[in-house]
Structure to design on (330 residues):
């Protein structure tokens, strides 16, 4: 028996097998390089002067952590110099960033550090990215160009800064999972095709907001909590990490339903999560893995955001559970 560790495919091996164009593969390479740098910053943070909130607020009105800014800077540095990227949308920047790269046809929308409220407690955080095809556009891209391209997603994924540095992505076919081999200094394939069980017995929602939920969400969750004798007819488990990357990753691997509904409180009418760089990329992965992703009453592929940082109510995960939630509205 050979004691040679099996050689696992690298990201570039996998991209070639998935038919990714050189431009898409190169752009993903820049994103992954930036994320390896972000991981180093996250791990160095406890030794830095301050890891807590920096006091400033971003355009979302959320407290900006120093790591949020540094993570954004790394992504902008790598992608702003990539010859294939024409425009960037970042959670941390109000306006579209145009690179003026001649002949570039891609836009990258990203949340540089999702779940950053978990930084101080060493919780799982991550970088989410979405790559849009702008080749239909013949002029310098503006916000309207990117909004019109939100349905032309050709690549998406996330990097999790957790016990394992993990990359999950798709370029439109399989949803694959890579783990970072620190000895080899590269991501290696550990799961070539993630699929979501159609049925599940786990819901992921922030129950502290219950008093703000609509009727359909309330009826559905009450059904889940009712157990075998309740309308859900099975015993459910609940999880809520406060980090969309961690929660949706769990749904991709174990099934379940992730819900961030509209909340009946000022500013909550469209929920909290942003379409272009949270819901669109993660919902696309969920559907490519055989699940279902809804934005209000629309499937994710039919939804068109009205602005770069538009928020949208979302339910995504095991198809049977998402359909049951949608049916609870009757
Ligand atoms: P709440 C993190 O701030 C985030 O944008 C998502 O990663 C996460 O799912 C959600 O907000 C958590 O929101 O209201 O439970 O704190």
């Amino acid at each position: 028996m050979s004691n040679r560790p099996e050689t696992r495919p690298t990201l570039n091996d996998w991209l070639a097998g998935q038919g990714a164009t050189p431009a898409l593969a190169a752009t993903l390479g820049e994103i992954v390089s930036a994320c390896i740098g972000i991981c180093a910053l996250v791990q160095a943070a406890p030794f830095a002067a301050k890891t807590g909130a920096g006091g400033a607020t971003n355009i979302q009105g959320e407290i900006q952590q120093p790591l949020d800014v540094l993570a954004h800077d790394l992504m902008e540095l790598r992608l702003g110099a990539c010859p294939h990227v024409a425009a960037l949308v970042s959670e941390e920047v109000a306006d579209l960033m145009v690179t003026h790269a001649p002949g570039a046809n891609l836009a990258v929308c990203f949340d540089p550090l999702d779940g950053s409220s978990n930084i101080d407690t060493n919780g799982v955080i991550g970088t989410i990215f979405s790559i849009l095809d702008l080749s239909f556009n013949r002029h310098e891209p503006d916000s309207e160009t990117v909004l019109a391209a939100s349905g032309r997603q050709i690549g998406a994924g996330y990097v999790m800064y957790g016990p394992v540095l993990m990359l999950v992505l798709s370029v439109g076919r399989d949803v694959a999972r890579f783990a970072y081999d620190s000895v080899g200094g590269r991501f290696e394939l550990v799961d070539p095709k993630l699929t979501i069980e159609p049925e599940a017995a786990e819901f992921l929602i922030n129950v502290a907001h219950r008093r703000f939920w609509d009727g359909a969400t309330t009826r559905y969750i009450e059904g889940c909590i009712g157990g075998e004798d309740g309308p859900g007819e099975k015993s459910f488990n609940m999880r809520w990490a406060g980090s969309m990357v961690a929660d949706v990753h769990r749904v991709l691997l174990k099934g379940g339903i992730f819900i961030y509904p509209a909340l009946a409180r000022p500013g909550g009418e469209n929920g909290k999560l942003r379409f272009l760089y949270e819901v669109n990329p993660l919902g696309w992965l969920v559907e490519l893995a055989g699940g279902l992703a809804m934005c209000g009453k629309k499937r994710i592929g039919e939804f068109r955001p009205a602005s770069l940082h538009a928020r949208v109510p979302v339910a995504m995960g095991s198809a049977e559970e998402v359909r049951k939630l949608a049916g609870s509205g009757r």
About this structure: The helical segments are 11-17, 22-44, 66-80, 143-148, 215-225, 244-254, 275-288, 319-327. The pocket of 6-O-phosphono-alpha-D-fructofuranose is lined by residues 114-115, 117, 206, 242-244, 247, 272-273 (CB under 6 Å). Residues 11-191 form a domain with the Fructose-1,6-Bisphosphatase; Chain A, domain 1 fold (CATH 3.30.540.10). The radius of gyration is 20 Å.
